[in-house]
Amino acid sequence: MAPSTKHIQILLQISRILFIILLVYAATTKLLEFDQFQIQLGQSPIITRYANLFAWGIPLIELVLSSLFLVPKYMLLAFYASFSLMVLFTTYIILILNFSDYIPCSCGGVLEELGWTEHIIFNILFIAMALISIYYLEINPSTKKNKIS
Questions:
Q1: Cα separation, 54 vs 62, whole angstroms
Q2: Is pLDDT above 80 for 42?
Q3: Which of 11, 78, 88, 102 has the CA that lies 20 to 30 A from 47?
C-alpha cells in the first residue's frame, strides 16, 4: 500500500525539522568550540592545508543549508545539498578510519559521544532520510504538485 499524500507531507516535515536541528546544532557546536574545532581539523591528514577554510566554511554551509529548509521553494535543493554534505562527511570518516594512523574527532556536543560505527550509522540514516525526501519531492508525481510549504 502506497503512503497517502498526508503521510508523505508528515514525513517531509519530520525530515526537514530533523535536518534543521542537526545542521544548526552542528554549526553552533563548531562555532562555540571554534578553537578546538580548528585545531582538530589542522590535525587531519586529509585537510590540514585547508583547515582554516574548512573551520569557517563547514559551519557556514551548515547554517545556510538549515536556512534553505525554511524556504519551501528551496527545500529540494536543501535536501540535495544535505545529502551531498552527509555523503562527504561519511566518506571522510571512512577514509580517516581506514587510511590514517591518527583519527582526529572534530565532532562536538552529543555527537562526540558516538563511536565511529555509531557515527557512520547515524550519517547513513540521515543520508537515507534525504534520499527518501528527494524521491517524494521530485520523482513521486503525487507530491510534485503538492510540495510542502
A1: 12
A2: yes
A3: 78
